[in-house]
Specification:
This protein is of the alpha/beta class. The chain contains 9 helices and 8 strands. The chain has a single domain, classed as Metal-dependent hydrolases (TIM Barrel). 40% of the residues lie in helices and 16% in strands. The structure holds zinc ion (2 copies).
């Protein structure tokens, strides 16, 4: 089995792909994508993510409630998420976190729902996929309080500074970088990427959002993951093939329940 690009964070179940979802998935496969992790943002969306993951062998998912919708989350929602998370196609809880940039739910509620999902992940023995914008101080405070280093997971679409990066790395978290790594003004982001150890990095599209520079103006999709990988290999100054290998290993470490088809087939 050939290793390929892994899109560790996309949103294939969203209506942005309503008309051509199957075509988008096929284009990813044709473009060398071996695995896609489609991320839930609320209960209903998580159902759709799981359904898609159950239909496609190379799609896995997460279930969770995004901070944008935190104000609408009920205690029953979290119980249902916990039930859904028992499915073997569900790799993690998320995306959850804090977003003080758009502030679409009251901050206090965002913090509460994030805390509850950290507890949920701990109880289930699953990692978390964390979203954070302009809220790193509060996010880190809650993660420390909740001993997130014992839960583990991914900071998706990392956009903080090196100080924040180091804190997450010290907690054993992985940092995932998206197509915004290719933006001309992303100097600081590339710097954080460069400093992060190779074995702690993931790549994602966050499709349909965050279209890479090369496709600016288009809807993003998993086949565009090659641009983030290309940029990553360039910054790390290693061959694309080696970078694909490295990220594949990292994904399996970040999501321990993901079946590993390469485990016993190591070519010396
Ligand atoms: Zn996000
Ligand atoms: Zn996302």
């Amino acid at each position: 089995m050939k290793k390929g690009f892994i899109d560790s964070h996309c949103h294939l179940q969203l209506d942005n792909y309503k008309k051509d979802r199957q075509r988008v998935i096929e284009r990813a496969r044709e473009g060398g994508v071996s695995l896609m992790i489609t991320i839930g943002i609320d209960l209903h969306d998580s159902w759709k993510a799981l359904k898609l993951a159950e239909e496609e062998p190379d799609i896995y998912c997460t279930v969770g409630c995004h901070p944008h919708g935190a104000g609408r989350v009920t205690p029953e929602d979290l119980e249902t998420l916990a039930e859904m998370a028992k499915n073997e196609k569900v790799l993690a809880i998320g995306e959850t976190g804090l977003d003080y940039y758009r502030d679409l739910s009251p901050r206090e509620i965002q913090r509460k729902v994030f805390t509850e999902q950290l507890e949920l992940a701990r109880n289930l023995g699953k990692p978390v996929v964390i979203h954070c914008r302009d809220a790193y101080r509060d996010l880190i405070r809650i993660m420390v309080e909740k001993k997130a280093q014992e839960i583990g997971g991914v900071i998706h679409c990392f956009s903080g500074d090196w100080e924040a990066a180091r804190t997450f790395l010290n907690m054993g978290f992985f940092l995932s970088f998206a197509g915004n790594l290719t933006y001309p003004k992303a100097g600081k982001l590339r710097e954080a990427f460069k400093k992060t150890p190779k074995n702690r990095l993931l790549m994602e599209t966050d499709a349909p959002f965050l279209t890479p520079q090369a496709k600016k103006g288009e809807r993003n999709e998993p086949s565009f993951i090659k641009y983030a990988y290309g940029s990553g290999a360039e910054i790390k100054d290693i061959k694309l093939e080696a970078w694909i290998n490295q990220v594949t290993n990292n994904v399996h470490e970040a999501f321990p329940s993901l079946p590993n088809p390469y485990y016993n087939k190591r070519i010396s």
